[in-house]
Amino acid sequence: MAGLGEVASVIAVLQLSGKVVDYVGKVRDASEDRKRLRDEIRACKRILQEIKDDSDDFEEGDAWADTLKTLERLDGPLPRLQSTLAQVETRLRKESTLKSSLRWPFQERDVRKMIEAIEREKSLLLLAQSKCSRQLLHQIKACAEHNSEQLADLLHSMNISSGNVDANFHKLTGQISDVQAHQVGLRNRIDRLQTRKDIQEGVKALEDILRWLTSYDHASKHHDIFSKRQEGTGTWFLESEEYRDWLSKSGSQKILCTGVPRAGKTTLTSIVIDDLQRRCHADRSVAVAYIYCDYKTRDEQTAELMLSSLLRQLVERQDTLAAPVKELYANHGNGRSRLN
């Protein structure tokens, strides 16, 4: 399981969204505003639940743990989403204690701002599900100042109560200042992607190229196989002299694992892949690429598909798109023709 701190942040926002949905469901007002807000929070809650479920299957140090840490950054979506939902929950809870039946306390313009605020953070949560923390970090940096300012405007507009709003408003204003100061330092390290538009275009270009290379989800296939193992399975192999010797040798080396059908070769391979990913996680110059072959889908396992999958995995590991990849994409009409 990923770090408890990161998962706890997701769980806290998940529980808060559940409370708000429950409160909204008790409101006697059947207006479209109420329904739209409820549906938006439900959609966000579903994404948070999926993120939480994914977190249960990953360990500290995995790439997914990095994604979780990115989500809970000061300028990340989780703190802003929690602030938005907390203000909605506070107002609805106050109404429920004053009256036997809840009355809708929000004006239409405030509901519109709430929905827009949740949608902005939801788009970042969806990007997080791609498990590419680098893309997510770029997008967060692009949106941080704007999203925080819009949230501050929302909290001020809602005017929950003079004391609470003032405290939250001033707290958020301070956070915006921290984000702005933080971004000044970051701008020196973001060379080609310096503006919000540049970052968005850079992310889109990468996504377009990855999608063009192949839509095959190699990571999900690996996760499905690896997650079915029993804890401790394959430890004997990872600790074996043959495996350690193979790891220590430089150059082109092969290690062959043979066995009868259903002996566990695929599971053992997934354990090796996971071990290699952990070892190479911090070194961006090293990539672990793999292919799982399945006799049930052998007609789909063409040479083009397998090579495209390997190339995509190598591209995903890079911090920037390599010139040969861009050239290859351009030579195919920017994705209008397939690799062959």
TrEMBL record:
<dbReference type="Pfam" id="PF24883">
    <property type="entry name" value="NPHP3_N"/>
</dbReference>
<feature type="coiled-coil region">
    <location>
        <begin position="27"/>
        <end position="54"/>
    </location>
</feature>
<dbReference type="InterPro" id="IPR027417">
    <property type="entry name" value="P-loop_NTPase"/>
</dbReference>
<protein>
    <recommendedName>
        <fullName>Nephrocystin 3-like N-terminal domain-containing protein</fullName>
    </recommendedName>
</protein>
<keyword id="KW-0677">Repeat</keyword>
<feature type="domain" description="Nephrocystin 3-like N-terminal">
    <location>
        <begin position="232"/>
        <end position="333"/>
    </location>
</feature>
<keyword id="KW-0175">Coiled coil</keyword>
<dbReference type="InterPro" id="IPR056884">
    <property type="entry name" value="NPHP3-like_N"/>
</dbReference>
